Amino acid sequence: MNGQERLAQQSKAWLIAALFDLLAEQPYETITVKQIAEQAQLSRRTFYRAFRDKDDLLDAYNREVGQRYLTALQQIAPQKMVFKDVLTYFFDFWWQERKQLRLLMEQGLFGRMLAKITPMANEVYRVFPAPWHIAGSPTEIAYIMSFAVGGFWNVLSQWLVKDQPESPAEMATLLMAGLQRLGETAE
Q1: What predicted TM-score, i.e. pTM, was given to this entire model?
Q2: Is 44 in contact with 35 (CB distance < 8 Å)?
Q3: pLDDT value for 131
Q4: Res 85: pLDDT
């Protein structure tokens, strides 16, 4: 990456951070591109070089965080991992994003993130070959992943909206216990 590309990446990061700073202060609908650029201490011209509008900026954050999660998953040795480890990792990752996620929830923008993350689910399944994955058809896998993403997303939205959310490790333990009981009753 050359210096100009690094500067463009840094500008995008500053613009995303500025958007979240503004989300903490006012409704998304009232935030303008001018405010975002000023908060980031950049020009509107710089904003428009990177993004069409504030929706495009928000979608860029959603894609970026989804890509970071996918990249992080690729660093795990899935063959040696048990499901509880994956749950713990999931909650640890999203715990680091809790401030931004809470703002998105409070502003009614969390569903928008889900819409950007869900299409990545099949890629997660492909690059993260955990021992418990099924060897199903592409359609079957797509439905299983949509089912899982929806469930995890609902858990995130209940968990992180709390004033005193449980720790990531506590969440993994709670969810694992519930899933085990569910499995026992389903047999």
Answers
A1: 0.85
A2: no
A3: 57
A4: 80
